[in-house]
Amino acid sequence: MKLFTALTLLISLSSTSSFVPPTTSPSRSLFGLPSPLSSTRFDNSSPSAPPNSDARVKGEVPPMGNVIEPEVQVETAWRRAETILKAIEKASPNEKSDLELTLYQTLQTLSFTSPSTFYSLITLHLPILMPYVYTPVVGAACVNWYEVAGHAGINTGLYVDGFNSNKQSIITQLKDYKQTKSAGGVDAIVVTDGERILGLGDLGANGMGIPCGKLHLYTACGGVDPGKCLPVTLDCGCNVEEIREKETYAGVKSKRTLTTEQFDKLVENFMEASMEVFGREVLIQFEDFGNGNAFRVLEDWQPKSTCFNDDIQGTASVVLGGLISSLRLTEEVTSLKEHKFVFLGAGEAGVGIANLIAYAIRAETGCSDEESYKNIHLVDSKGLVSKSRTSELAHHKLPYAHDVGEATTLEEAVELLNPTAIIGVSAQPQTFTENVIKHMTKNHKNPIVFALSNPTSKAECTAEQAYKWSSGNCVFASGSPFAPVEINGVTKIPGQGNNAYVFPGIGLGALTAGSESISDNDMYIAAKSLSETVAQDRLDAGCLYPPLSDIRDVSKKIATDIATKAWEDGIARHPKPADVRKAVEDRMWSPFD
Known about the structure:
By secondary structure, the protein is an alpha/beta fold. The protein has 23 helices and 14 strands.
């Protein structure tokens, strides 16, 4: 692929073995490139370095007398990005995907060569550049991780050998990172094992692009200091032979052979080591673990650390926020309890959303657990989750096994149950068919259609399809961005249920208060806070979320509400300030300061 024409500077990794996958020689970078630089991760050496800076003394930049102003650097970077964006608009489908990866790579390289320029750039142009920093383009970047990250020699975080690590070896890795790569410590960790990357499945060590992207958004959207962010991959192998056996795959070339006990011990060693090195209030976000481990790991660690799982809880919070917003648009349904939900997909995201909806119903009505579950239905790969299947169901599906009959497909389930809302988290494209949406529209004035699977190629339907098949009457949201759609002379703005609306604010709030833990109630608080930021004119256009350009203000509100609740509940380690919102603002890092 011709991915590299837009790059102007390639850098290599630190020679420290902690920052490369376990199969890579300690004296080489991630993909075998020489590793001459020993500067910290956020050394901002550039041609604009002051005349007496270390960079100039060492001869790492030209001995020029003038200083390039930061705003000039940002404008130059934007012009380069804009050139690629214009090429993307005109490109054929094959050329488009290559150019999208070129822009992704250009931005990633900039994040390591000039972090302040990078974060200034994406903060100023977040609505345009977010798809190239995270979803949907990060998915293709992970699949092509060597071609994208390897050629640039980008330092992509910390790799922990899942087969040969113990607590002490992980402590050594983390201490080395703290001393050589961080800005005095680490506030936020995003950790994956690469087993369920977006809707793409098991990518093994190639999944590192996900924690890297999430932490970029923690900074751009939530003001978490980028020098105190750590992306981590627990390299436990990869079960997809096509990925694992590629010559360019740099992870452990083994199948996932760890037993549940061994995997849990690895996670325990990592969690305890992280809290020992960085302090017990370090924020740890679990990302894209497989369904077989994700729920158990969250249940184990939620009560005893400041952690959450973004796929289970963050997705649930942003979707619940959209559903709360939708109540201002739908005439026949005025509360969550009045809805009847059908989910296509019963994994982490589906069950996480269902659980939080049930939590919200209980919080708002005081009803029993059983009552809160009764109008929430799941469709998995075998059909409708029902009473007749209880013996075969995973424990997290059992609350939704109702005695309502049987259905083997989504279409059958919709005909049987007549839902007011369908929520797609299946990674099965084009499964919200014309028949499904027309059936819902026939029975409900404003049916809810959430096609949430990422990346775009995995979406259950497009925005245009949903509006067309419902004659413009559905309330639509998606996981990946879709362009506005004109239908019946009205322009509809599809809402993107992007987790970035909530997880930076949740993390920022927990860090501000020094929260001992992050609860399901925090996810409910974040959802309500998010819905309160949606202006009426957005709703009038059918959009359930605020503009991405407002996202730092959204994060600030969520963080303030989360931190306030932590002090109210007595789980904050830090003394309560006189003004919580100001404390949140003071903590937010900005590239413009």
